[in-house]
From TrEMBL:
Residues engaged in binding S-adenosyl-L-methionine: G109, I134, G135, D136, Y137, V138, L139
Similarity comment text for this entry: Belongs to the RNA methyltransferase TrmD family.
UniProt keywords, alphabetically: Cytoplasm, Methyltransferase, S-adenosyl-L-methionine, Transferase, tRNA processing
Record's catalysed reaction(s): guanosine(37) in tRNA + S-adenosyl-L-methionine = N(1)-methylguanosine(37) in tRNA + S-adenosyl-L-homocysteine + H(+)
Protein name, per record: tRNA (guanine-N(1)-)-methyltransferase
Pfam families recorded: tRNA_m1G_MT
GO molecular function: tRNA (guanine(37)-N1)-methyltransferase activity
Record EC number: 2.1.1.228
Complexes and interactors: Homodimer.
Length: 241
């Protein structure tokens, strides 16, 4: 997979060279490039924005600059991702749908956003555009949201996570439940004991305990996820914890 990020603050994307994503890029599992949008400006002031048609506060990013950048960066069949608080919600399911793409281009807007014709033109040319929000709050630009989405997608690439079993039992995985609490050594710490069942070696009991704690936690923190569960996943006995 290839990932390109276009931003007026390319330094904001520096964390992409660290940790798992950075290693994936270094080892060739992932091709990664960050571009400065201003390199596609043609005026002396390197202008990327202008006042909104129709009036109102703030500035809008110009379609001509973005169009030139995307013409150079987007490959045939590439998917354009536009981070915006008015997008569809980015979820684990969306991450799974993106990891199979050949190229993702993240177009990081600032100010009041990017002229809507940029997305429209790409769609008209047969391209895929996904305007994505990472949650119900407002950030100053798409850079941090892009970091979030890129990490969520890159860790799903085969070979990026050392132990693929780590991907199986996690929160927001297949089961539709949050993950159970975890413990390690020492067995007793600060007057607190790790749950005895986890040290018992009784595998079936451990599986049952973890499932019960996952259900309990999800009921407490994310009742909306319980509502959304496939009815065959839980029975009444599971909810009577
Ligand atoms: Cl993707 N961008 C901005 N600017 N704010 C956000 C967001 C994205 N997702 C949530 N808030």
């Amino acid at each position: 997979m290839r990932i390109d990020v276009i931003s007026i603050f390319p330094d904001y994307l520096a964390p992409l060279s660290l940790s798992l994503v950075g290693k994936a890029a270094q080892s060739g599992l992932l091709e990664l490039a960050v571009h400065d949008l201003r390199s596609w400006t043609t005026d002396r002031h390197r202008t990327v924005d202008d006042t909104p048609f129709g009036g109102g506060a703030g500035m809008v990013m110009r379609p001509d600059v973005w169009g030139a950048a995307l013409d150079d960066v987007l490959q045939p069949g590439g998917t354009l991702i536009v981070p915006t608080p008015s997008g569809e919600t980015f979820t684990q399911r969306v991450a799974e749908s993106l990891v199979i793409e050949s190229q993702l281009v993240f177009a990081c807007g600032r100010y009041e956003g990017i002229d809507a014709r940029v997305a429209e033109r790409h769609r008209q040319g047969g391209g895929t555009v996904r305007e994505m929000s990472i949650g119900d709050y407002v950030l100053n630009g798409g850079e941090v949201a892009s970091l979030v989405m890129i990490e969520a997608v890159a860790r799903l690439l085969p070979g990026v996570i050392g132990n693929p079993a780590s991907l199986v039992e996690e929160s927001h995985g297949e089961a539709g439940l949050l993950e159970y609490p975890v413990y390690t050594k020492p067995p007793s710490w600060a007057g607190l004991d790790a749950p005895e069942v986890l040290l018992s070696g009784h595998h079936a009991k451990i599986v049952r305990w973890r499932r019960d704690r996952a259900i309990e936690r999800t009921l407490d923190r994310r009742p909306d996820m319980i509502e959304a569960l496939d009815p065959t996943t839980l029975d009444k006995a599971d909810l009577a914890l």
